[in-house]
Design brief:
The protein is mainly alpha-helical. It has helices at 4-29, 35-60, 65-107, 114-121, 124-136, 153-169, 175-178; strands at 112-113, 140-143, 146-149. 75% of the residues lie in helices and 5% in strands. A hairpin with a 2-residue loop joins β2 (140-143) and β3. It is elongated, with a radius of gyration of 23 Å.
Length: 182
């Protein structure tokens, strides 16, 4: 029903679908704990699918070897770009916690205790890592048992994202914790 040209055209998209499914399978079904290894696992299978589909379709189309290799390289490059977009989509969740913490500290000039942050965000390990990263970047500082915001690039990014969310969704990131008191 679909000819070789169709499969050449859709191979990177099919590869991305395989990438996502393989990543999710590795996340839910395998003992691989490291996020980046799971993403690489998905990218490997998605890339392999892209190469096989493209090579097979160009073989059926009876293209010369040089032209077939060009299609394979082009589709593999397209898949890498799509896969990088998926990688960044997955990473957004990790980065957003840093932005939320930066916003919350900015909204509470008196600071926020570690216990309060842990109550709000759950996993101690995640909060500890984000706080350490923010402190290393001199984006926050610790005063006694409290963390306070400092002017930084992360704060500017957090503020820009907050304004964007307000425009797009008519609500602010900060609305969820602005009413809370420490």
């Amino acid at each position: 029903m679909f000819g070789p040209k169709f499969w050449i055209a859709v191979a990177p998209t099919v590869g991305l679908a395989v990438d996502v499914v393989a990543h999710l399978a590795a996340t839910w079904l395998s003992p691989i704990r490291n996020l980046y290894y799971r993403l690489l696992f998905g990218a490997f299978w998605g890339g392999a699918t892209t190469v096989v589909l493209t090579a097979d379709a160009t073989r059926l189309w009876s293209n010369p070897d040089v032209e077939a290799a060009a299609y394979v390289l082009f589709n593999l490059g397209t898949f890498v770009i799509l896969s990088f977009g998926y990688f960044n989509f997955v990473q957004m969740n990790v980065s957003s916690l840093r932005l939320r913490i930066a916003n919350e500290l900015f909204d509470n000039p008196q600071g926020v205790s570690l216990e309060s942050l842990l109550d709000r965000y759950g996993a101690r390990e995640i909060v500890d890592q984000r706080l350490a990263r923010l402190a290393r970047g001199r984006q926050i500082e610790r005063r006694g048992d409290r963390y306070v915001s400092r002017f930084s690039v992360v704060l500017l990014i957090a503020t820009a994202m907050d304004r964007t969310k307000r425009v797009v969704l008519r609500r602010s990131i900060r609305d969820s914790f602005r009413r809370r008191t420490d």
